[in-house]
């Protein structure tokens, strides 16, 4: 086993950030392809979950509007962003994108 094969890909988390999982570094092209297949499966699941999340968010917004309430509850959005902050600055950006997708066409008929 070479020193590079004993290494693992992983990033130490800064204080307050979520640690990343450590993944063994592949030793050959087949290992790289196996990891890429895992990424592809994760991406497909993420897309499915984001589509579901967006549909749920739209339903909540429609219900709140029909009940006479606001479509957006900013305290709720801030709590959601706090959850994504554990991923670092890019996590906050991801949270903002998800919130934007869930809002739909605000102010448009």
Short description:
This protein is mainly alpha-helical. It is built from 4 helices and 2 strands; from the N terminus they run H-E-E-H-H-H.
What attributes does this structure have?
single chain; 109 residues; mainly alpha; Chorismate Mutase Domain, subunit A; two-stranded antiparallel sheet; 4 helices; 4% strand; elongated
Number of helices: 4
Instruction: Give, in spatial order, the strands making up the sheet with the most strands.
Output: 1-2
First-residue to last-residue Cα separation = 63 Å
Whole-angstrom Rg: 19 Å
CATH topology of the domain at 29-103: Chorismate Mutase Domain, subunit A
Secondary structure tally: strands: 2
Largest sheet composition = 2 strands, antiparallel
Characterize the structure shown:
- This protein has 109 residues and is mainly alpha-helical.
- The chain has a domain at 29-103: Chorismate mutase (Chorismate Mutase Domain, subunit A).
- Helix content is 63%, strand content 4%.
- It has four helices and two strands, in the order H-E-E-H-H-H.
- It has helices at 3-6, 29-66, 74-85, 89-103; strands spanning 8-9, 23-24.
- It has a two-stranded antiparallel ribbon with strand order 1-2.
- Helix 2 (29-66) crosses helix 4 and helix 3 (74-85) runs antiparallel to helix 4 (89-103).
- It is elongated, with a radius of gyration of 19 Å.
- The model is unreliable at 1-6 (pLDDT under 50).
Write the layout of secondary structure elements.
Elements lengths: L2 H4 L1 E2 L13 E2 L4 H38 L7 H12 L3 H15 L6
Antiparallel strand pairs: 1-2
């Amino acid at each position: 086993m070479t020193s590079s094969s004993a290494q693992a890909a992983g990033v130490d988390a800064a204080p307050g950030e979520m640690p990343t999982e450590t993944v063994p570094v592949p030793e050959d092209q087949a290992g790289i392809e196996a990891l890429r297949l895992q990424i592809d499966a994760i991406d497909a699941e993420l897309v499915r979950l984001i589509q579901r999340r967006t549909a749920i968010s739209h339903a909540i917004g429609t219900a709140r509007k029909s009940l006479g309430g606001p479509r957006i509850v900013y305290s709720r959005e801030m709590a959601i962003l706090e959850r994504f902050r554990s991923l670092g600055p890019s996590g906050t950006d991801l949270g903002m994108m998800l919130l934007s997708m869930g809002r739909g066409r605000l102010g448009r008929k």
